[in-house]
Amino acid sequence: MRKIIVKLSERSYPVIMGARLENLGAYLKKRFVSKKIFIITNPGIKRLYFGRLSVGLRKAGFDVSIVTIADGERFKTLRSVNNLYKQAIKIKLDRRSIVIALGGGVIGDVAGFFAATYMRGLPLVQVPTTLLAMVDSSVGGKTGVDLPEGKNLVGSFYQPKLVWIDLSTLKTLPTRQIRNGMSEVIKYGIIKDKAFFSFLEKNVGLIKKLDPGIFEKIVFNCCKIKADVVSKDEREEKGLREMLNFGHTFGHAIEVLGGYQKYSHGEAVSIGMNMASELSAKRGLLSAAGMKQIKNLIQKIGLPITSAKEIKFKKILDMMKRDKKVRDGKIRIVLPIKIGKVIVKEMT
Ligand code: NAD
Ligand code: GLY
Is the pLDDT of residue 6 over 70? Predict the structure, then answer.
């Protein structure tokens, strides 16, 4: 097992990689007093992984309840959170009960928001089962839900007590979802780690073959970068965490315009990263070669670089104005100036 600590003084927590779902119970038993566990997941993930997770939890003496949310970004809503509150009351969860988010980024964000707000906060354990959730959403404490008007418009910063990554869950992940996660992986290379970007370029073949060794390295490196950024700028106030939004301001708008169905989060972010790179090159901030390198890697992984024709640039810009990152009416865009380095620019 490998461990990375997200350093946030008394709220510090470990991200454990190479863990097994079956062993989470024994780990929690040594560290928590409560015996009550509330697992939040969706029906498909429940079918795949509840057995492996619950066997260890029950063996360790936990009283385990499980509740499901329908699968998909469309269900990342306040309505889903409200249903969780109702279930929690029914089974008499108390403030020490442990919430486990078992799933991808949607489950992690909704369950995290539930844990942050129910009884003003319950201990949260993130158990990510998608590549995207392993490398990004389970670490760093952003939780929340969408509104029809925009993505992630309601939420809170709420750090988990633990992130428990069992890489074997990637074996059942559909290829489209692997690609989806690869979008956030490429992001880390562009914003902060040139050597990692080159490593990805060299290993496209192994990535596409779903080589387990490659994913171990990828998840570890991404979590290391994310933990470092979050430790230094937890609430996105110091201009550092903002760079993790590279591709996302365009991407969120594209996701909304596609009705949260046409593009997955990672696909929309890929289009967004390409748009930001083109914009940066147009402004003379990024070389044409740099722009091409970014475009090439995104395409080689099999991710899109342009959105459907009906999603027009003007519509994207209008939608971007509703983004959380807008300050005084100005959109803040993260632009690459070379592979491994980005800056933030304001646009009206
Ligand atoms: P997702 O949670 O919708 O999961 C994708 C699909 O994979 C779903 O159908 C899910 O049921 C399925 N799945 C999950 N694990 C599986 C497994 N092991 N085997 C088979 N199928 C499995 O999507 P996602 O890409 O994981 O997350 C996207 C969400 O994450 C978006 O809502 C985005 O806004 C959010 N996000 C949050 C942060 C953050 O910091 N909180 C960061 C990035 C993205
Ligand atoms: N995914 C962006 C962040 O965690 O800040």
Answer: yes
Ligand 1: distance of its center to the CA of 104 in Å? 3
Q: Which residues are CB-neighbours of 283 under 8 A, at least 6 positions away?
A: 335, 345
**324: pLDDT confidence band, cut at 50, 70 and 90?**
low
- Residue 232 one-letter amino acid: K
Work out the angle between the directed axes of helices 175-192 and 194-202 (0-180°, nearest 10). Answer: 140
- Kindly tell me if the per-residue pLDDT of 68 is higher than 90: yes
Alpha carbon of 106 to ligand 2 centroid (Å):
14
Active site residues: 120, 142, 184, 226, 236, 241, 245, 248, 252, 265
Integer Cα distance of 223 and 140 in angstroms: 10
Q: Closest by alpha carbon to 51, among 59, 72, 96? A: 59
Q: What is the mean pLDDT of residues 228-250?
A: 96
Ligand 2 within 6 A of CB of 244: yes
Please tell me if the CB atom of residue 151 comes closer than 6 angstroms to any atom of ligand 2. Answer: no
Rounded to a whole number of angstroms, the distance between the first and last alpha carbons of the chain is 47
For residue 255 and ligand 2, the question of a CB distance below 6 A is answered with no
With beta carbons less than 8 A apart as the criterion, state whether 37 and 185 touch: no
The residues that bridge with 333 in the sheet, in sequence order, are 345
Atom index in ligand 2 nearest the CA of residue 184 equals 1
Give the containing element (helix H, strand E) for 106: helix 105-117
- The answer to whether 142 and 113 have CB atoms below 8 angstroms apart is no
Strands 150-157 and 142-147: antiparallel
- Tell me if 37 sits within 8 A of 9, measured CB to CB: no
Side-chain-side CA neighbours of residue 58 (13 Å): 9
Distance CA 46, CA 53 (A): 10
Using CA atoms, how far apart are residues 173 and 325, in angstroms rounded to an integer? Answer: 31
Q: Say if residues 306 and 274 touch (Cβ distance below 8 Å).
A: yes
Q: How far is the CA of 28 from the centre of ligand 1 (A)?
A: 24
Phi, psi dihedrals of residue 146, rounded to the nearest 5°: -95, 160
